Amino acid sequence: MSGIPPDLHQRIRTVLLDCGPFDDNSQIRDLFTDARINPWRFSLPSRDNVIARVEAFIAFLAGKHRADDGQNALVLLLRVLSERLDASSDCPHRLTAVANDLTATLGGARPVTTKAQSPSPASAPRVRYNDTYTRYEIGLERFEKELGVQHPEYLNFTIQQTMLQEEIDTARKTGSTGDRSVRRAEIIARLNQLALTTLGKSFNSLCQS
Description:
By secondary structure, the protein is mostly helical. It contains 9 helices and no strands.
C-alpha cells in the first residue's frame, strides 16, 4: 500500500485504533483544522465502522503530499495527533515513533519541484478530454496563468487545483457519485471566491469557452 510494508501498515493501523479519534466524526473533522493537514479536510473518506474508517484514512493519506514542502499527509496526521494527546499516556510516543518509521520508509518528504523544473498538475501536458469536466481544466489553466507563481495566494490556488483535478480524474475513472458532486462543488466554490479576490472575476467565468 503506497510503499508501506505490511508490518508497518499494521503498526499504523493499531496505533490509530488505539489512539485516534476515529469513532467520532466530529473529532476527526476537528483534527483536520490543523493547518498541516487542512488541505484534505473537504475530501475525507467516510466509512460505517471504526476499523474500515482507519483503513480508509491510511489508504487515502498514504499517497498524498503537501504542495509546498512535500511532506506526506499520513505522517503529518500521526504527528498532529501525537501533539494533541495527553503526554502522560503512551500514545504520543507511539504515534511519534511510527511517524518517524514511516518517514524513513517513504524517504522523507517528497522533493518539491519549482515551476521551472516541473509544471503544476493543470499546466502539465495532459490528454485533453472533451467531456463535462474539460471546462474546469481550462479554467484551472487560465487561473494559474493569470495569477502567476509569485502571487501570495498561489499556494492556496495549487492546493485547490490539485484537489479539483483529483476529483475530476476519479470521476472519469469510476463515475460521479452524489458525494463526489458535493465535494467538487465545494472546491469550485472556494476557487470562485479565490478568483474573485485575486483576479476580480469568478472561476466559473474562467471556465467558459
